[in-house]
UniProtKB/TrEMBL annotation:
It comes from Catharus fuscescens (Veery). Keywords: Cytoplasmic vesicle, Phosphoprotein, Signal. The keyword Phosphoprotein applies. Coiled coil: none annotated. GO terms for cellular component: acrosomal vesicle; nucleus. InterPro entries: Proacrosin-bd (IPR009865). Its main location: cytoplasm. This is Acrosin-binding protein. It comes from the Eukaryota. It is found in: Cytoplasmic vesicle, Secretory vesicle, Acrosome. Acrosomal protein that maintains proacrosin (pro-ACR) as an enzymatically inactive zymogen in the acrosome. Involved also in the acrosome formation.
Length: 90
């Protein structure tokens, strides 16, 4: 283990910035969703990309402990954005 207050190793920096870049991208996708809604073609392409080319029909179940189903993928994605749980999976 590293001493507290020492800089990260090269590998640790790579992981740290990789995570930040992914989080910023997820945050940007959320802003697009909030601004344009789920019917926007760019938002739909992002949803398709996230789901291997097909937006799943509802209801959508998730990894949430309460396991409450969402009406559709858009509602699920909007929930992730609002709660900042970008990497919560279906």
């Amino acid at each position: 283990a590293q001493q507290p207050g020492t800089p990260l190793s090269d590998q640790e920096y790579h992981q740290f910035f990789n995570f930040l870049r992914i989080t910023v991208q997820a945050n940007t996708a959320c802003h697009l969703r909030e601004m344009y809604g789920c019917k926007n073609s760019l938002v739909q392409r992002l949803d398709e990309y996230e789901n291997h080319g097909v937006i799943p029909p509802g209801p959508i179940c998730s990894e949430l402990p309460e396991n409450t189903p969402f009406q559709n993928f858009c509602t699920f994605s909007l929930y992730r954005c609002i709660m900042k749980k970008y990497f919560l999976k279906v």
